[in-house]
Write a structure and sequence with these properties.
With 233 residues, the protein is α+β, with helices and mostly antiparallel strands. The protein is 32% helix and 28% strand.
Length: 233
């Protein structure tokens, strides 16, 4: 057998093994129930429009955007705080819930926003109190628009199988390997809070943290229960 023929044979064997592994893995996903749907305890729209001193307004997400998101439930609102002696403040809230793995994953701001002309200029992963039993580790991404010099702070985090997960590696592992990573299969809630700012982002970080502290208990009310029944999508 010539060297080139051996080379092609090795490549063919590798490709065949890869195809076989993929087929076995997909059958395993079906067998362990990754495609099952885990319902929220309550729809996202049941989160109150009035939370603490903040008054909300709901906004419709265009149908073409909903198709791209491919989530089972979504919520987009603005919340405003006024008349408290601290000045008016407004934040944007976006929540998407993926109750079953359907070939899509939550979209992260640092991946989506550059496509709309935003450039990330700073990022942190602080731990914040959000009105729950334990602090939450979040992503704080600071963006600047390439046109107009508009600046925006986006604070986002995810609950995967009911657990706050900030690490990108762990997010992917818990998403792809639900059987071995524990918790509910295919249950991902992503929360994004954004606010525009001028020269100094520090005051806006405090505003977002304040809003998170009153939003947190409401989020807990909609998260899937530990004994939630699953159903086929």
């Amino acid at each position: 057998m010539t060297r080139s023929r051996r080379h092609y044979l090795v490549v063919a064997c590798i490709l065949a093994a890869g195809f076989l592994f993929g087929e076995v893995y997909m059958r395993w996903l079906v067998q362990v129930g990754v495609g099952e749907s885990v319902p929220l305890a309550s729809p996202l729209k049941t989160i109150p429009l009035k939370v603490g001193e903040w008054q909300g307004a709901t906004h419709e997400i265009p149908s073409d955007e909903l198709m791209k998101i491919a989530a089972e439930d979504t919520l987009m609102r603005t919340y405003e705080r006024k008349g408290t002696g601290r000045g008016t403040a407004q934040v944007s809230l976006y929540i998407a819930y993926f109750g079953g793995v359907r070939g899509t994953a939550p979209h992260h701001p640092d991946i989506c926003m550059p496509g709309a002309g935003w450039e990330i200029i700073d990022r942190e992963m602080p731990t914040m109190e959000v009105g729950l039993s334990e602090p939450v580790e979040v992503h704080q991404d600071v963006f600047e628009h390439r046109v107009g010099q508009q600046k925006r702070l986006v604070v986002w985090w995810e609950y995967i199988h009911g657990e706050n997960v900030a690490s990108r590696t762990m997010q992917r592992l818990k998403w792809v390997l639900p059987k071995f990573m524990g918790g509910k299969r295919g249950s991902v809630l992503q929360v994004q809070i954004s606010i525009d700012y001028g020269d100094d982002v520090t005051p806006q970080k405090k505003i977002v943290e304040e809003f998170m502290s009153v939003l947190g208990p409401r989020l807990k009310e909609v998260l899937p229960k530990a004994n939630a029944a699953v159903s086929a999508p």
